[in-house]
């Protein structure tokens, strides 16, 4: 039950009550004295600031105000040797009061000879051909160089190229088997990532395994570097990472593909950050999973305490320097064209750079509702995510201040704090002090509880079948839920939160002023009414159950004005035009009416209803049998002329009725002036319709005849023109009819010469 006290915040204004919250519960202290609360008084008064509790008469010995504490579970001293201890303490338990921060020291000392695991991850695309020849002979030299620094070291090897899909690799079957140029005799088939040698301290074995590697190739310039790093980091057992300083050397002369590039090859599934090596140590999800993002790589490196060294050529050094800014505890070194300087590069990166000299302390798996901050080893700056100490040499001891705060009551939670790049971690177990710590007598028949319950933190915890502040109510045959339901108004809070439900009846608490709440559900008090000029009910009335009961001559929600209607009377003598109430000499308008006296309604429109107008003005329509009863709110006059017409509507005969409407005092009351004459449509002219129809028929017949005549004329004209053309083409013969005999006979004189 006392968990409640530690999950509260004491209000600043004298802390008269306590309300549920967490952030500032450390300022509150409960009193465990039996008779601290009066009968009917809210048990929340037990909780207040320590000074207020003392003022109320609670003895110091009965005030529960514990501090946060630290208990060291494992606290081995810092040491060197085969299994060095570099952090102190190693495991602690914090018992925290919610909202109260606790600060402790975390010490780190970098041990001399701490073992190093180095995994060499090499790009085997064709442009790295000459580099591979040098790497084949560096095993013993690299191992000896590391041993001179740390005393014990192991090295391993892995290689990578890229995904074997277009556009990253030529997918022609012949090219997949031999992606190198034709003149290259030894060539490895295209692959994504291959683990070659687990971490070992045998330099010769390293050289033998690496010497068996052959160069490979791909199409585009960027490589699958991030794919290879993810597998080298997640395959902890395959690689053989130990309890040591873990280094991952990435050797390449090209940039890298990242998350999203896989879509170019139709790969949509994101990288799952899991080890996926088959029996031959080949990455089997290379063509199924997308490349990992830089954020995924940074997170997994931090989780496994692996520090990357990017050994790259000058052409891509700037790219990897930008990448290094996103990955804590990483370093970039520039390779020579043939990687001949790789050993010196690695030794320099480890010995001189931030990999070993800069110590970053941070946490992992931080539970919700726990906050952690750090102060750097100099104690100057405070950070919420990490503490940093630069230029830490071997054997130098540095101390970080770590502050832990529980934001609310929680069950026991665990998280780790430690330096990046080292496997040693401080285990922090956090538990909140939210249980009752009152030294009450363990007796379920305590006399303070009418021998029907036990005392917990000064309050009664009743036995089954009893309830009440002192367990004075016996349920008998009644159901506890049914009794408590009687204390709720409209299913609201029990006794409105202002009293205790005892045997189905609300026993009301006292108000802040010392008076009592009242009403069947303690819903009433006489202290919370409206004020005017900082006076309850303006000093002109009494507060009764939250409402002001004004004295004669006063009115208003706060009885703040004298009764008067002078400002509400219209010229017609009505009050607010009958559309509101006069309160404090001002009209409180209703139904959208506005103005000082509710004279207008900007949002209202005239109801131009035709039924009453037709009935009143012309004695027809649906209301003609009960016109007076149906149109009781409308007075009317019949006019010969109207200067203007507000409404123009049709009656049931189709005639137009015109009228004006003037609003009267009150709601929906009008004076109507109706135009005497209606505009009715005239009947049809039968003679004109018949004559027009006959004329139309005659005209149509004439037009048809003219059309036929025109068609005949056009046809004859065409025939005539055709006849003329045939006449022009006709040719008559010049020969004579042999049967034809002329009527005269001509005889020639043979002797006639023609001479006269």
Can you describe what's shown?
Belongs to the integrin beta chain family. The protein has a six-stranded mixed β-sheet with strand order 5-7-21-20-15-18. It has a six-stranded mixed β-sheet with strand order 11-10-9-12-13-14, sandwiched between helices. A five-stranded antiparallel β-sheet has the order 6-8-19-16-17, with no helix packed on it. The protein has 756 residues and is an alpha+beta fold. 21% of the residues lie in helices and 24% in strands.
Q: How would you summarize what this structure contains?
A:
With 756 residues, the chain is α+β, with helices and mostly antiparallel strands. Strand 37 and strand 38 form a beta hairpin.
What is the topological layout?
Blueprint: H1 3-6, E1 8-10, E2 18-20, E3 29-30, E4 47-48, H2 50-55, E5 69-74, E6 87-88, E7 91-96, E8 102-109, E9 116-123, H3 129-135, H4 139-150, E10 153-160, H5 173-177, E11 193-200, H6 203-211, H7 225-234, H8 236-239, E12 245-252, H9 294-303, E13 306-312, H10 317-326, E14 331-334, H11 342-352, H12 354-357, E15 359-364, E16 370-375, E17 382-383, E18 386-389, E19 397-406, E20 413-419, E21 426-432, E22 453-456, E23 459-462, E24 466-467, E25 473-474, H13 480-485, E26 499-502, E27 505-508, E28 531-532, E29 535-536, E30 541-544, E31 547-550, E32 554-555, E33 561-562, E34 580-583, E35 586-589, H14 610-618, H15 627-630, E36 634-639, E37 647-650, E38 656-663, E39 670-675, H16 686-729
Parallel strand pairs: 7-21, 9-10, 9-12, 12-13, 13-14, 36-39
Antiparallel strand pairs: 1-2, 3-4, 5-7, 6-8, 8-19, 10-11, 15-18, 15-20, 16-17, 16-19, 20-21, 22-23, 24-25, 26-27, 28-29, 30-31, 32-33, 34-35, 37-38, 38-39
Helix pairs in contact: 4-6, 7-9
Domain Integrin beta subunit VWA: 14-436
GO biological process, one term: cell-matrix adhesion
GO cellular component, one term: integrin complex
């Amino acid at each position: 039950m006392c968990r409640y006290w530690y999950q509260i915040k004491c209000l600043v204004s004298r802390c008269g009550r306590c309300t549920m919250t967490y952030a500032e519960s450390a300022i509150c202290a409960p009193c465990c004295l039996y008779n601290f609360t009066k009968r009917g008084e809210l048990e929340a008064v037990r909780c207040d600031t320590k000074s207020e509790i003392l003022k109320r008469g609670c003895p110091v010995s009965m005030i529960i105000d514990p501090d946060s504490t630290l208990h060291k579970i494992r606290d081995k001293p810092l040491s060197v040797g085969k299994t060095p201890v570099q952090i102190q303490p190693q495991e602690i338990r914090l018992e925290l009061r919610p909202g109260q921060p606790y600060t402790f020291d975390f010490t780190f000392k970098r041990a001399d000879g701490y073992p190093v695991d180095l995994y060499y991850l090499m790009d085997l695309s064709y442009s790295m051909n000459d580099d591979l020849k040098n790497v084949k002979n560096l095993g013993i030299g690299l191992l000896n160089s590391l041993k001179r620094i740390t005393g014990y070291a192991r090295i391993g090897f892995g290689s990578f190229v890229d995904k074997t899909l277009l556009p990253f690799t030529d997918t022609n079957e012949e090219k997949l088997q031999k992606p190198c140029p034709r003149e290259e005799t030894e060539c490895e088939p295209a692959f994504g990532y291959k683990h070659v040698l687990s971490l070992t301290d045998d330099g010769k074995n390293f050289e033998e395994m690496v010497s068996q590697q052959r160069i490979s190739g791909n199409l585009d310039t960027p490589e699958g570097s991030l794919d290879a790093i993810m597998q080298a980091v997640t395959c902890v057992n395959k690689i053989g990472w130990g309890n040591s300083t873990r280094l991952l050397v990435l050797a390449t002369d090209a940039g890298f593909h990242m998350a999203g590039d896989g879509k170019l090859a139709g790969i949509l599934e994101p990288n799952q950050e899991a080890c996926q090596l088959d029996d031959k140590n080949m990455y089997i999800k290379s063509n199924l999973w997308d490349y990992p993002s830089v954020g995924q790589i940074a997170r997994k490196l931090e989780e496994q305490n692996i520090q990357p060294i990017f050994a790259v050529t000058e052409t891509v050094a700037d790219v990897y320097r930008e990448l290094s800014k996103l990955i804590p505890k990483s370093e970039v070194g520039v390779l020579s064209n043939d990687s001949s300087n790789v050993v010196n590069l690695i030794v320099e990166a480890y010995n001189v750079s931030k990999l070993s000299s800069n110590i970053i302390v941070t946490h992992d798996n931080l539970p919700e509702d726990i906050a952690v901050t750090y102060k750097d080893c100099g104690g100057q700056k405070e950070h919420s995510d990490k503490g940093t100490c630069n230029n830490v040499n071997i054997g130098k001891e540095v101390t970080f201040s770590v502050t832990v705060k529980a934001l609310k009551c929680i069950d026991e939670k665990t998280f780790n704090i430690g330096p990046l790049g080292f496997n040693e971690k401080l285990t922090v177990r956090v538990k909140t002090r939210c249980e009752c710590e009152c030294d009450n007598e363990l007796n379920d028949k305590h006399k303070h509880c009418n021998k029907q319950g036990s005392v917990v933190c000064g309050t009664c915890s009743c036995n089954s079948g009893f309830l009440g502040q002192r367990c004075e109510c016996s349920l008998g045959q009644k159901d506890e839920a049914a009794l408590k339901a009687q204390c709720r108004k409209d299913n609201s809070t029990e006794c409105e939160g202002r009293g205790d439900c005892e045997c189905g009846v609300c026993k009301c608490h006292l108000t802040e002023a010392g008076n009592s709440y009242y009403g069947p559900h303690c819903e009433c008090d006489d202290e919370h009414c409206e004020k005017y000029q900082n006076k309850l009910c303006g000093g002109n009335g009494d507060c009764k159950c939250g409402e002001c009961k004004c004295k004669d001559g006063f009115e208003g929600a706060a009885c703040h004005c004298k009764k008067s209607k002078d400002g509400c009377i219209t010229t017609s003598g009505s009050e607010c035009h009958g559309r509101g109430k006069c309160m404090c000499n001002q009209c409180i308008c209703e139904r959208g009416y506005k103005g000082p006296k509710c004279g207008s309604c900007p949002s209202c429109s005239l109801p131009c209803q035709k039924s009453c107008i037709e009935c009143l003005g012309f004695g027809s329509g649906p209301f003609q049998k009960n016109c007076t009863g149906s149109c009781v709110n409308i007075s009317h006059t019949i006019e010969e002329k109207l200067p203007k017409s507000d409404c123009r509507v049709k009656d049931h005969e189709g005639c137009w009725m015109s009228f004006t409407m003037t609003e009267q005092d009150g709601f929906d009351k009008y004076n109507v002036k109706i135009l005497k004459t209606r505009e009715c449509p005239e009947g049809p002219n039968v003679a004109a319709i018949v004559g027009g129809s006959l004329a139309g028929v005659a005209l149509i017949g004439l037009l048809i005849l003219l059309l036929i005549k025109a068609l005949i004329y056009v046809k004859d004209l065409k025939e005539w023109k055709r006849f003329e053309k045939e006449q022009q083409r006709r040719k008559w013969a010049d020969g004579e009819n042999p049967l034809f005999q002329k009527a005269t006979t001509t005889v020639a004189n043979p002797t006639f010469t023609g001479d006269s």
